[in-house]
């Protein structure tokens, strides 16, 4: 009995499932047809479902709403299927009432009407004799009518302006900034020659105490009356006449000029500019035995001596192949030790006729910036090269030995200068591009120089300023002066121990004084800047 009931249930399910599949496929096909035929198909479906025998479902529950009789009732389906078909039919009727197909067709027609008709632009036909746009005949490389073009256009070559060399031989002392027939200039030359004879005798004094020396420096000031433009270009060398009566300052410039300024003359005619060289004057010095002689060295390979008594610039040495850098006096100032930028040295005797050297020494140095002779042992001298400072013996160089006696290798960058202390030569001060000033103990020339002190100092002057050079004060050989890049502008004085003794400044000092020099017996300091101006610091009553 149980087996029979189970078989009946399976048979009912199989029949019901097949009927449901058939009815759902028919209902879905009704939705795909237009809305006008929906009622016809639904009535056919209704008629078909009523005529087909359907086995009643077993234990089937339905709500009152779904079981209610009606024309759209699917009596052979389950309640879920009947509700699903009802929703499908309602959605189809709703979309049919919207008339989306007609609206879409209407919109397509409107779009087609609004589109402009496609029209291709007609290009104008070229006329045979029509004149076209104007074009450059030069760019077309076509010769103009009646004129033939050159085969190839040559670009103009830029020729660098070179300053012509000063002709060999003596030159007259004719100031460029004033009349050569000026009676005042002739009187000045006569005065300078006479005061040089009286200032030849040196007065040796002992070192002053730092306290009294500092008090003397504090009284030195600069004013508008002690500032004067004496050269056209930047000042590259400075020297002070050793006279104890008059104040005469000399300056060499990068343009090759040599300027002389007599501060005793209060008039505007007190400054005179000469042009004995064609390139920068890197070294100036009054002769220690005859201060009426002003010797100047230039990059153009010449050394000249300006004689105040004869008003002539005599040519002492000429070497156009090797540019010169610096010089110093040997023995009784009749012999010059000349350094070359190429690292070589020349011994020049001023008493010998001609402008050649007595001996040309090939050294192993790459470059020589400054040479300085020991103040007591005149056969020794020191050179500032590219990276090293060397001490040589002149006697060894004359015999062919070019090896230095002592080398100072503490410097890490290029060296601007190296000088012995002026009285005893027991100290050496160097100026290096590593922003350090170094002082060495040179009391023993037979052993290595120990380092005494190192001073941090900004020595980066740039391209347009002359490089700083620390120079000893001849009156106080344990102190030296050097220019400064600090603000406000100043010229500083240091002790050999590294202590700052004094700083020269003031409202009138508005530019960097790269080079400075002290008077050998008086408290006067002269500094030169890049605009060709001299700044002189002195006591008011001087």
Task: Tell me the strand percentage band.
Answer: 25-35%
Assembly type of the chains comes to single chain
Distance between the first and last residues' Cα: 151 Å
Low-confidence stretches: 30-71
Q: Measured on Cα atoms, how large is the radius of gyration?
A: 54 Å
- The count of β-strands is 29
Main sheet summary: 5 strands, antiparallel
Structural class: alpha+beta
Helical residue percent band: 10-25%
Shape, please?
elongated
Q: So how many helices?
A: 8
Question: What's the mean pLDDT score?
Answer: 82
Strand order of the largest sheet: 1-10-9-8-7
Task: Give a verbal description of the structure.
By secondary structure, the chain is α+β, with helices and mostly antiparallel strands. The protein is 21% helix and 27% strand. It has 8 helices and 29 strands. Strands 1-10-9-8-7 form a 5-stranded antiparallel sheet, with no helix packed on it. Strands 2-29-28-27 form a 4-stranded antiparallel sheet, with no helix packed on it. The radius of gyration is 54 Å and the shape is elongated. The termini are far apart. About 8% of the residues have low confidence. InterPro entries: WD40/YVTN_repeat-like_dom_sf, WD40_repeat_dom_sf, WD40_rpt, WD_repeat_DNA-damage-binding. Pfam families: WD40 (PF00400). This is WD repeat-containing protein 76. Belongs to the WD repeat DDB2/WDR76 family.
